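Usage example:
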Amino acid sequence: MEGMVDIQIHEAACRGCRMCLDICPTDVFAFDEGRGMATVQAAEDCIACLSCAYLCPSNAISHHQFHAVKNFYRDISFCRRMERFL
Amino acid sequence: MSQRDEEELQRTRETLQETMNFLGAVAAGLEDAVGESAKSITYLAGKNLGHRVCVGARRTNDVEEALVELRRVLKENGCLWTFDRFYSKASRSTSAQEGADEVLLVFRDCMIRQALFSYGHPQKGSLCNMMFGFFAGALETIMGRTSRLEIKHAGENACLKCLTIDR
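Running the assembly step on the lines above writes:
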């Protein structure tokens, strides 16, 4: 099993839209009503799907120490092999 | 792992991913041609494959042991579908529903997701259904029980799926 993912929310960037709370499948985030922004309440439950980071309109969420999947189609040597089909 | 082994693994992955990209294009075409039925077709194809690759697998009735055996079979067959059990902060056990066991699985490196993203196909389509069929067939062979694998969340870097195994 992977170690705990490190999630950071850039406080100045967060607009409190709650989209990260809606998209997260494992309820990693909570909403701080007082400050009107999202907070990380259960980082250990993060599966690093990165949906919150992709969805965040102000790009306020970043992940560290997670397993990044191998995107072969972005790999130069793989793309050369794919040219046969394109 | 030696550098030669790593290179060999990389070559295998690339070849496998090329095949999967081709399959992704076929599945997308199938969805256009036959609509929702495409999911049934790919599900049955996956289930058949699951049955076949697990013929020599060790039989067990324990969910945890069955998943370990399934991982071993996948690895033995050169399939790089790595998955981990997901335990939430609140619960660290298999949840038992009425007449079934439920486990949450996280899929990280997934050939299907990469194949779909390569050509902009959406997730949760017929190719994902092939994987559900594969798990159903494999677990039916290993455990002698029927099961369902449903996507709870399809992400860019990982997917969370719920495996329900009937008792």
